[in-house]
Amino acid sequence: MVAVNNRAMRAHLALALLVAAAACKGSSSSSASKNTGGSGSAPAVATGKPAGSGSGSAIHDDDDDDDNNSGRPRPIETVREKMNQVDQNTPDYPDPEFKPGDTPKGPPDKIKGDKADSEWTPAEFKSGAARWKDTGVYVDGKPVGFLQWGELPIGIPVVWHRDKVSANKRPGTNDPGWRWANQRAYRFTDYLTAVGVDLKSVKEIHVYGPKMTATLIVGGDELRGERGKQFYFRFGANTYGKAIPMVPGTIGNGNVPDKIASVMVYLNKKAPSLDRDTGMYLEIGGKNVEQTGVPYFGDPIRGGVRIYVDNVLAGIIKRQDLDPKMAKPDKEGALHWKLADVLGKLGVDTKKSVELWVVRADRREEKLPIADVANLEFAASSQAKGGILLGEKSIRANVLAFHSRPLKAEDIPHPTPDDD
To answer: Could you state, in order of their start, the residue ranges of all structural domains in the chain?
Structure first.
């Protein structure tokens, strides 16, 4: 009888354990269902998006400004890019909400330490190719232009070269899969002449590549000679893209970088020398000082709305440089500046200009009579996509080009079928 009771107790205990295990499993399944959005669904997988962001949510990256800018001026470039500006002779306007002595709120950032955004430059932008985002042309350290197709001087001759390009191969034929096309290129000598450089005064021209050690150096005599007439540059996609040098054979020191980071021209100032292992050096006070930026200038210029007067760079509008005291808010609180006032502050002289062309995405899009400029206002919101918005129609401009003569239709460069 005792044995029977013991067996019964063991059976009862085993049954109780099975019931308890089943209950735990049911509870766990219920919990999993709640976490995954329904029974039977797979566990949630981290996507890297912030909580609450779905397919319709706006995720801000480095290329976009805060949508809610509350009327405050925001940088035209990304937050990181704006740290590595600009003409060192023109200090940035201070943040209107930042007072001297202020410190960042909250605990120090692990990367930036106690430095505010306006004081911090990420390491990747202190040196290397990232500093040369825009291909500037500097004469004795002064910026005179940028090698972008939409910013080329009006009237600069095009030198056409035959080039093999891919072509559709028809089924069942012996088509070669390529065709001849015309590729546009431009002489360095023509460019320099168009921006007002006297070729007779050129001592050296330096064409920087992605690495300083790959700098191409051409002397003035060679530049003015027969070899100089075959010293070209083109653009990666013919009418846009990065500038690329073209040198039939050998010229200068023989270096030919695969793309152009910047161009330095020396007329009156001493040119740096090249160490093929380490980079560019300039003798200062009896010592060779490495030149990691633009000699006689500083950090290369990046971004901004460039302003040209008769083909020569005359100023740059940068959103963080705009003085909020010069602006007036609209009904929504967004700030608007008077273009003429900003041009005056930048020292841009347009007295002889008769028309203004708006350049956008490397194309001259709109022409405005100079009389309209006197009362023309602009906004510099995130909607400008790296530019400014002109007038009531919010015309987006990445470059402003003033001219002292009316441009004719044949003056305006247009892409050809071969450019596509």
So the answer is: 77-126, 129-301, 305-417
Find the angle CA(171)-CA(175)-CA(176) to the nearest 5 degrees: 130
Task: Round to whole Å and give the CA distance between 181 and 415.
Answer: 13
Structure tokens at 240: 């846009």
Could you give the C-alpha distances from 343 to 239, 265, 338, 340, 400, in angstroms and in order? 29, 27, 9, 5, 11
Task: Return the SS3 of 304.
Answer: coil
What is the token pair recorded at 143? 């910026």
Among residues 62, 163, 51, 92, the alpha carbon closest in space to that of 318 is found at 92
Q: CA gyration radius for the chain?
A: 31
The phi and psi torsions of 103 (rounded to 5 degrees) equal -125, 155
Query: 143, 90 in Cβ contact below 8 A?
Result: no
Tokens at 280, concatenated: 């560019």
| 380-400 pLDDT tens trace | 977 667 799 999 999 999 999
Edge-to-edge strands, sheet with 377-379: 328-329, 335-338, 377-379, 388-390, 395-397
CA–CA separation, 8 and 226 (whole Å): 111
CA–CA distance, 362 with 414 (Å, rounded to integer): 10
Q: Which DSSP helix (H) or strand (E) runs through 350? A: none
| Distance linking the first and last C-alpha atoms of the chain | 99
| Chain segment 294-304, per-residue pLDDT in tens | 999 999 999 99
Q: Which residues pair with 359 in a beta bridge?
A: 364, 399
User: What is the CA 114 to chain-centroid distance, rounded?
Assistant: 28
Residues 6+ apart with CB under 8 A from 297: 87, 88, 138, 141, 142, 143
C-alpha angle 75/78/79, rounded to 5°? 75
Alpha carbons 18 and 312: distance in angstroms, whole number = 87
Cα–Cα distance measured from residue 192 to residue 64, given in angstroms and rounded to the nearest whole number:
35
Q: Which of 295, 397, 299 is nearest to 339 (CA)?
A: 397
Residues 6+ apart with CB under 8 A from 244: 233, 234, 235, 236, 258, 259, 260
* pLDDT tens digits, one per residue of 251-264: 999 999 999 999 99
On the 0-12 / 13-18 / 19+ scale of CB atoms within 10 A, 107 is exposed
Please name which of 284, 400, 298 lies closest in space to residue 342, comparing C-alpha atoms: 400
Kindly state the tokens that stand for 25: 């499993």
- Rounded-to-integer distance, Cα 37 and Cα 21, Å: 24
Taking 50 as the pLDDT cut, the residues of the chain under it are 1-5, 24-107, 109-126
